[in-house]
Amino acid sequence: MAYKGIIFDLDGTLADTLSDIAGSMNHVLKAHQYPVHTVEDYKLLVGRGLDNLVTQSLPVPAQQPANVSICLAEMIEDYGKNCLVNTCLYEGIRELLDELSVRKMKLAVFSNKTEPLTHKIVAHLLGDIKFVQVIGARHDFPKKPDPAGAWFIGEQMGIPSKDIIYMGDSDVDMMTATRAGMYAVGVLWGFRTAEELMANGARKLLNHPLEILDFMA
Q1: CATH class of domain segment(s) 5-16+87-216
Q2: β-strands 15-16, 88-89 pairing
Q3: How many other C-beta atoms are found inside a 10 Å radius of the C-beta of residue 26?
Q4: Are 12 and 18 in contact (CB under 8 A)?
Q5: What per-residue confidence (pLDDT) applies to 184?
Q6: Residues 6 or more apart from 151 whose CB is under 8 A from it?
Q7: Distance of alpha carbon 80 from its chain centroid, rounded?
Q8: What is the pLDDT of residues 81-107, one digit of tens each?
Q9: What residues contact residue 156 under an 8 Å CB cut-off, 6+ apart?
Q10: pTM assigned to the model
Q11: Contacts for 64-72 with beta carbons within 8 Å, 24 or more apart?
Q12: Could you confirm whether domain 18-82 is CATH 1.10.10?
């Protein structure tokens, strides 16, 4: 099939953001004298938005809504200042996006990260790439895996869902793609396993970003 558009997840798909996320969350945890987590631990904590990340990072007795709100505000403030310290594109992403742009493929980014932070990272790393939409967590759309945001992007692209590839690295992304009626492609350079991706609807797995070009040929 000749796919006409691609929607990318951000964290774990386009960019390796894990070290900066872990650094900011651990800074908040240390400030409250809570136990911290390893960078590897955060692979299982990211993907469902910063509010969920903060909640799951806190000790269970500290997960009361009022305390979560305080820690979330602190996390957003710290991460906003430090979200580009170590964050970088994965190998092959720049080449992939350049080639897709040459092919006039319609591109978009859809993340569960707050929208201002999503825009900040995309603008810094990929400011020269023309995306139809760059969407993060915002009040007018529910978070992934709800497909509403993906459908909105498809409408803005002017492309039916069946003609759109959705690339991501987590169960949330594969569920979003499947529920939206898009072609679910799981990436193995991100934060989750092949088993998780396949179990949640991945129809194809990639070991390297440029492999998608062969699939689209």
Answers
A1: alpha beta
A2: antiparallel
A3: 20
A4: yes
A5: 98
A6: 161, 180
A7: 16
A8: 999 999 999 999 999 999 999 999 999
A9: 108, 132, 133
A10: 0.93
A11: 71/28, 71/32
A12: no
